[in-house]
Protein: (2Fe-2S)-binding protein
Organism: Plastoroseomonas arctica
Amino acid sequence: MAKLNVNGRTIEVEVEGDTPLLWVLREQLNLTGTKYGCGIAQCGACTVHVDGAATRSCSMPVSAFDENQKIVTIEGLSPDSSHPIQQAWLALDVPQCGFCQPGMIMAAAALVAATPRPTEAQIREEITNICRCGTYNRVIAGIQRATTGPGAAG
């Protein structure tokens, strides 16, 4: 049994302690916005926030978490897609296929929460998620728009 705080709710799940958080989110809690990509924490499709930090959930066992840690998935980032990153993504049509985008959005949201006006160099250094479609320039533009353009936070 594990007790987790996910998207503001305390949830108990019956699961082995070595089960990756990703599978608890997807299979036990039906939060399928968090994607499985590589399974070895390299691609970032599984990125969620843990206490505000971008965390790759595919390689973190559920036993590493407790109910005091706040886990936020793409579903919990904003109930109506009004987060500045989500709005910038929409305005600039950032995704192509879209598979990696929940993880990319979560990584970008964590970055701008920690660094409200990141430089392009900081974005390139911090956003290490892989996009098979290669929309990196649009990701950079989306983060810049979210932090300095129309509707920017802060």
User: Anything to note?
Assistant: The first helix runs from residue 21 to 28. Helices lie at 21-28, 74-77, 84-92, 101-114, 120-126, 136-148. Residues 118 and 144 are 8 Å apart (CA to CA). The domain at 84-148 is CATH 1.10.150.120 (DNA polymerase; domain 1).
